[in-house]
Design brief:
495 residues; 18 helices; Fumarase C, Chain A, domain 2; elongated; Fumarase C, Chain B, domain 1; 2 domains; L-Aspartase-like; two-stranded parallel sheet; mainly alpha
């Protein structure tokens, strides 16, 4: 069981909830602060004090006072009017993480929401009820308003969900679960949608996939080094300690350990004096990506445990303060940074693929073809890798450098962080396909050199991947091989 405190959620907790079906509950230590902030909201409504988000309109309508008898209607109007996202739906892992993170923000006790509303979010997490949330439509400030509105609608019996593998109306799913729709009270609609959980959830999934892929990239690059009879001296510890980046040094150490008993790698001067940069500089390039991932993880963990709505109820309900914690700039910049770093991991892989297939750059069969000329072999796989890394260069254009004013210029600077997070996740998927192609080519090269000469570690991975992709004995539809290996690389059990 993972207990939410609003302060202690870690990446490992998210992995357990997503991939090990760990259940989630509210930590009992949070209950008092949740009740206190709720009581503060109820007092404001009862005393008819004018406070933004409780008895006013929203955005440019913040100066419009809402009468006491209309406060509940305001909550439904807020959700349905803001639920106008478009495009494909977020993947279920992203949606589940979105619900988890929103609940974790709400248990902090700054939002004035009833505990039963938070519990309903966690019921959906625990029972694998996935609201249908379109990916496009958030500016990444004022919170992820459109996606979080779609996320919240099923709580009140509106919108659609995926449940038991079928897309259903939320009302039908609630009836199947024996639950009644919740009638939201003052501020609760705003508390559900004013936050950064769409961009943060997408960023968390992108990070988890990127972290695993970065480790897999080192393993695949090690097999490539064997296939190209790469020079192991470039990975000597003294070189990397001389520069001083811990991530670079650690990457070189892992590759040395993977190749420690290989009879395929060479020493400087044995076959050539130096390798090309895509081989020689693996620790420097991959290590820089690891530096970026460390930065991104730090920002995501802070945001996973942040109060990001507005207004915030503080000092046990004594103050209700409007601010801007919903602004997604910290995550927007982190997502753009991760997209760039992962795109570079793809770029260097594509250059290694070229060295594996180009007969002018190696002593292997041209394009790793079993019958050069009659059969094309891996020729067009390199084309695909080149197309993917080129696409990544456009996806890696920073979303955070753009801002378009909204709400009649009341909200005049926004982060576009959700766009950045979506692009980062797409970049990671593209890079995973590039590494699947490198792995296929590297396996062919090492098979040609003799797998009996491979290092123990790389030979073990070679055997595992050969269960997914067989040796190229004749031309075939390689798209199936690429997709199968990319799917295998994505699976958590291969971490």
């Amino acid at each position: 069981m993972v207990y939410l405190t609003g302060k202690t959620l870690e990446m490992e907790d998210v992995k357990k909830i997503l991939w090990q079906s760990e259940q989630v509950a509210i930590d009992s230590a949070c209950i008092s602060s949740i009740h206190h902030s709720r009581s503060a909201v109820e007092e404001i409504v009862e005393e008819q004090r004018t406070v933004y988000g409780i008895n006013t309109g929203f955005g440019k309508f913040s100066d419009v006072r809402i009468e006491k008898e209309d406060v509940e209607e305001l909550q439904r109007n807020l959700l349905v009017s803001h639920a106008c996202g478009v495009g494909p739906l977020f993947e279920k892992d992203v949606t589940k993480t979105m619900m988890l993170l929103r609940a974790n923000a709400l248990v902090k006790g700054y939002s004035g929401i009833r505990i039963e509303v938070i519990q309903r979010l966690l019921d959906f997490v625990n029972m694998d009820v996935y609201p249908c949330v379109p990916q496009k439509g958030s500016l990444g400030a004022s919170g992820d308003l459109a996606p979080l509105s779609h996320l919240a609608l099923p709580l009140i019996g509106e919108g659609d969900v995926w449940y038991r593998g079928v897309k259903r109306s939320a009302l039908e799913a609630l009836q199947m679960l024996g639950m009644a729709p919740i009638r939201l009270q003052a501020k609760e609609g705003l508390a559900l949608i004013n936050g950064t959980q769409a961009m943060t959830a997408t960023g968390v999934i992108a990070y988890l996939e990127a972290e695993k892929l970065a480790y897999d990239a080192e393993k695949i690059a090690s097999i490539t080094l064997e296939g190209l009879e790469g020079i192991i001296d470039a990975f000597d510890e003294s070189i990397h300690r001389a520069r001083g980046y811990p991530e670079q040094t650690a990457c070189a150490a892992r590759i040395r350990s993977y190749l420690k008993d290989s009879r395929l790698v060479t020493t400087q001067g044995e076959k050539r004096v130096q390798d090309a940069y895509s081989l020689r500089c693996i620790p420097q390039v991959h290590g820089a990506t690891w530096q970026t991932l460390g930065y991104v993880k730090e920002k995501l963990i802070i945001e996973m445990n942040a109060a990001t709505d507005n207004p915030l109820i503080v000092e046990g309900g004594k103050k209700v303060i409007s601010g801007g914690n919903f602004h997604g700039q910290p995550i927007a910049l982190a997502m753009d940074f991760m997209a760039i770093a992962m795109a570079e991991l793809g770029n260097i892989s594509e250059r290694r693929i070229e060295r594996l297939v180009n007969p002018q750059l190696n002593t292997l069969p041209p394009f790793l073809s079993p019958a050069p000329g009659l059969q094309s072999g891996a020729m067009i796989m390199q084309y695909v890798a080149a197309a993917l890394v080129s696409e990544n260069k456009t996806l890696a254009h920073p979303a955070s450098v753009d801002s378009i004013p909204s709400s009649a210029n009341q909200e005049d600077h926004v982060s576009m962080g959700t766009i950045g997070a979506r692009h980062a996740l797409e970049v990671v998927a593209n890079v995973r396909h590039v590494y699947a192609i490198e792995a296929i080519c590297a396996m062919e090269a090492t098979s040609y050199r003799g797998t009996e000469n491979m290092a123990t570690a790389t030979c073990r991975w070679h055997v595992q991947m050969r269960k997914i992709v067989s040796t190229i004995t004749e031309d075939r539809m390689f798209a199936k091989d690429i997709e199968a290996l990319a799917a295998w690389l994505k699976e958590e059990k291969n971490a």
